[in-house]
Amino acid sequence: MARLFLFKSNAMAPIVKNLSNVLFIFIFIFFLPSSLSIILKYPAIINLGDSNSDTGNLISAGIENVNPPYGQTYFKLPSGRYCDGRLIVDFLLDAMEMPFLNPYLDSLGLPNFKKGCNFAAAGSTILPANPTSVSPFSFNLQISQFIRFKSRALELLAKTGKKYEKYLPPVDYYSKGLYMIDIGQNDIAGAFYSKTFDQVLASIPSILETFEAGLKRLYEEGGRNFWIHNTGPLGCLAQNIAKFGTDPTKLDEFGCVSAHNQAARLFNLQLHALSNKFQAQFPDTNVTYVDIFSIKSNLIANYSRFGFENPIMVCCGVGGAPLNYDSRILCGQTKVLDGTSVTTRACNDSSEYINWDGIHYTEAANQFVSNQILTGKYCDPPFSDQMPYLLNLKF
Asked: Which domain of life does the protein's organism represent (predicted)?
């Protein structure tokens, strides 16, 4: 079946909504999913990271809970994802004709790990967790969970023969599979709560040393194919703007906290260099560096061109414009604030918003990001010349 990509434009909204004068202008590209799956052909996906790609681990661990309206757009109920619907990883796997990844810690629902497993957990950091960390599942611990998973899966397959082969990956999947990694934003953004800007920058090399050691552990376990996502424009998240952007001189032209974005850029620059170094050190690997920062920055800077109406304001929050965000109450909660009972509810149309809850993106924004990733032009090495379609949007 051909797949259709439809992109909205604000200029079209009045026409589309007026049924007496309906005019649809489609910018669409058809391609066979099988063509894409040939280019991105992996038998299994191992995912590690934070809330950007957590499909339910932190919730399954009992550390946090999410309530409606989380999940309302796609799953129709909370799915363990910190979003109104699907994440970037969900869209990428769908494009590869792969099933959504089951979280490692979800013991119910008859999980099937044949095509891979998700170890990402919201709030996780590259550096080891401390007593005040949101998540104990640091990058190193997630790798240890993966090693345990692999060992136990191969042990069960050896003991039971074909009994579990429908549910667990065989030994060759670990070398042929893709290791997707999206982590680091909590290390950088969290550091600003206790460090100066210069101290945050000075901490980046040690963060990346820990990351590199983790990559080597995955390599020792057979990992050869890696997708490494850099971190996005952290200064454009409402949570950081509310806390660190009260002084207008600290904001850039888009209303984002300049220091956070500068730190993210420096982190990404060094992460890119590390990715290239790792590829050179281990030439039998395939390391792809994915520039999430550029994609998200372009989306925020040109939000109306891509059909969004609010680049920074939160969909599920309280307080109204400009941020509609209050750190004292999370999406879906009811609390008494300043003597008044307040409930955070979602906006009428989350597809008009980039930010879902002050920290995480909406499903619509995640779909935009994943579509841009799949053009191949934001990756190093790029694979745009291998794609069966050309994406060139102009409004």
From this structure: Eukaryota
